[in-house]
Design a protein that fits this description.
The protein is an alpha+beta fold. It has helices at about 1-10, 15-35, 90-95; strands at about 40, 55-60, 65-70, 75-85. It has one domain: RelE-like (YaeB-like fold), CATH 3.30.2310.20.
Length: about 100
C-alpha cells in the first residue's frame, strides 16, 4: 500500500487523493475482518489458475483490487496483493 501512496503523492502530486485512497482501503480492510467472505473468488474468473491461489478472493476499492485469502477454520484473513485495475494481475495467478 505504501508504493501506491508514494506513487500518487510523488508522481501525481496529489497528497489529498493519496490520503483518501489510503483511508478508503484501510476501511475496506477493516470491513473484511467482519465479512471476509464478501469478495468474489478469483478462480471464478481465471481458467488456468495456480494451485496456491485457488481460494483467493478479490474486492474492489475505487480503481484498485484487493486480493486476499480467508482461512475459515483459523478465522484469519491475509491480503496478498493490492493492484490498480489497469495492471495485468491475472499473470500472477497463472500456472507456469
Amino acid at each position: 500500500m505504501q508504493s501506491i501512496y508514494s506513487y500518487i503523492t510523488d508522481k501525481l502530486f496529489n497528497d489529498t487523493a493519496a490520503y483518501r485512497l489510503e483511508d478508503t482501503i484501510k476501511r475496506k480492510l477493516s470491513y473484511l475482518e467482519d465479512f471476509p467472505e464478501t469478495g468474489t473468488r478469483i478462480n471464478s474468473h481465471l481458467d488456468d489458475i495456480s494451485k496456491e491461489f485457488k481460494e483467493c478472493r478479490k474486492i474492489t476499492v475505487g480503481n484498485y483490487l484487493i486480493i486476499y485469502n480467508y482461512f475459515k477454520e483459523e478465522q484469519f484473513t491475509f491480503v496478498t496483493h493490492i493492484f490498480h485495475q489497469m495492471q495485468n494481475y491475472g499473470q500472477l495467478f497463472q500456472n507456469d
